[in-house]
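TODO from last week: model GOLD domain-containing protein.
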Amino acid sequence: MRFSTTTLLISALGWITAVAGHNIQLKAHSRECFHETLHKDDKMTVSFQVGDREFGGSGNLEIDFWVEDPLKNRQYYRQAVSSEDYSFTAHTDGKYIYCFSNEGWTSNSKEVSFNVHGIVYVPEHELAQDPLEAEVRRLSDALAQVKDEQSYIVVRERVHRNTAESTNARVKWWSIFQLAVLIGEGIFQVWWLKRFFETSACVPNPSRVPILAPFGSSTLCPLGSGERWELRALPLGCQVSTITFLTACVAVLGTLALVGLGVLLGRLWEFGKKARERGGVQFTKCVRQKLQRWWIRRGRSGVGDAEEEGYERGPAESEPLLG
């Protein structure tokens, strides 16, 4: 008999509290509207979360949301939101409309997961005084909240997963692009340096008129120059001037200097990181002592041997701070 009473209470509770969960696909430049027929003093709650099932769709997840009363007046309007939880009490009988709009945003489609809670107003003299029924009602409300939170967590997990996958894809393609650029640059530099330092034996040319030779053949020198070595950077015998040669040397040296600077900055960054981990004050003291000992060994300080030995026997030597 007790089981039958509980079943009847839960069935009766379904007429008082109604919960509905929905998932819709909101296409680009479109809107979706729904309506609920309410009576005066009925309560209604609409909660939603915007997500995207598409891979890499971690961009704009914002939509417009509004609620209209039976008189077609917007009693609530929010623009550019990705989640919302709105509750209101019906001030008159009629049809209340709530809309989700993706009209003013980007061309990607968005998935909207929303829940609608409706509580029918019941006068106090009609409410059951049974404490078991009241407890079941509170339990139903708690379960509805748990379900809403679960739906919210599912959508958020999907959004975060899409964001992570999109980031991984972009990092992958950027790494491939960098690798291709480095390989191409290396091949070009090898080819350029090889062509730059190629040599060709020249012979005198009394008429000083260049002879059209086949592709890749050597050039001819002016009258009286004898046989000498010439630098050639391009095919068809085009010679290289001194300015071009010096420019290439400066470019190569500059590249090496930049690489060395990058390595030095990396070592300094690691050194500073270790310093922060071991404590700033202790690290500074240790560095000062090591610099002083180095200066003493160089013989450029007036500090005596006793002080030098004092530094050698200092407490800082008991712990190798710098490794």
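Done. Residues 279-323 form one domain.
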